[in-house]
Amino acid sequence: MERRKRDQQQNSRIISALFLVLAMSNTLLPAWCGPGRSVKSAATPLRGAVPDTLLVRLSADADKEEVTTLLQEVHGTVTKTIRVGQGLTILVVKTEKGRAAEVTKKLAKDKNIGKVSADIYCSAISIGDAGATVPNDPGYADQWALYFLKHAQCRQQVRSRPATAANLTFLDTGISPVANEHFRITQYNCVDGGDDPTLETPFDSGFHGTAVASVAAATTNNGIGIAGVANLEGNNCYITMFRISKDGLNSTSSSILSALSFIANNSATRPGPVNLSFGTSAANSINSVDVVQQIALMLQQRGCLLVLAAGNDGAEDPSPEKYCRRIASIDPNGSRSSFSTYGPFRTAAPGRSIRSYDPSHPDPSYPVYYNGTSLSAPLYSGAIGLTMSYMNAPNAVSADAVVQATATSTQSGLIVPNLADAVAAVTAPPPTPAPPPSPAPPPPPEEAAPSPSAHKKKKPGHKVIHKKPIKKPVKKPRRR
Predict the structure, then answer these.
(1) pTM above 0.90?
(2) What percent of the residues of the chain are helix, what percent strand, and what percent coil, each to the nearest 5?
(3) In what helix (H) or strand (E) does residue 190 lie, and over which residues does it extend?
(4) Is residue 133 exposed (0-12), middle (13-18) or buried (19+ Cβ within 10 Å)?
């Protein structure tokens, strides 16, 4: 009876979450954005090129005056300048309506222009869906992902050990802090204003960013909601959120590049994983963009690692693994999720029926479940952050290497983080040094030096004759 009752309660929660998801697709959603914000309707995913908008990469030796003249000739307006390091500059250019193709051809012929491409719509990847030592978070029992990643075993091993704070960075729709779950949040606006992101009060323009950040950084063992993978006890995370969406669902490649370049160029950037759960179709994935790979390399040099949600197309992304870490989704049985994009990469994390938060719901603790690699990516990012928090010299690239080396291999050939083994690898005491070698025996005593005569050479053909000393007779005194 007890088991049947629990099953009925679980089914009730799943059905309730299903009705919530269906309602979200047809009703107005309150997006908490601070006082005075209006209610917005659910956004529709946008695909393809942003109308009349180009990304113009300048040549390394481009003449700025000639570029300005060229843009005036084609009636192009620069809306944003993205600088990556010292040698890479990308202009976001707005053309006259319907003239993007014509302007692209003319710009591509100029010596000052390295490459011209369309600004592409990107959208949030996850899909809403119902579906050792255990902390007291009420939703922990529903977080099968944490059991699969061995979160409880890891907690039992090291929760009493001191650890540094994990630094987690997200490019998403923003975050609406859930009371007593999210702390130490810094949020930047990447969709309004000038070339560089600007600080703003944290809020979520939809729900995606809050759901994504929560599975990685929610407070653990506080008797509320869910537990975050990067927290073993309490809250030990810094969250940096770059809001790249106005409507809570859609973004552009220019907004993503703006955020990434800001992170790569900013000397105050804390080392850690940089999570991006937005993307495009598998054929034109974020991972396939060479500028993204260049920035990802710069991020690695700063001790960061760009973690990408692989996508939910259920198709192949053939682009190679370079400087980003792509994360596929697995089901509770360890097999790749049917919706997950795949390709020449093996890293995965749970992505089906992942419990998190929906800030648009009146009760933040209401159980909502999501499908998508958007949730797989932050689970992996959280694994890197947790591993870094126990390392002597925190570095996301080094932590990623540890997570890869200690990962669990599934029957389908994917590798999934094993938190217990990863943290054990960086907290194990150093090996006992070998005992010093035994001291060398003292040298034998030196023999007495031979007399000088012993060094005289014998003449060939002559014998050495040893003469006996002649005793002289002693004269006896005469008697008189």
Answers:
(1) no
(2) 30, 20, 50
(3) none
(4) middle
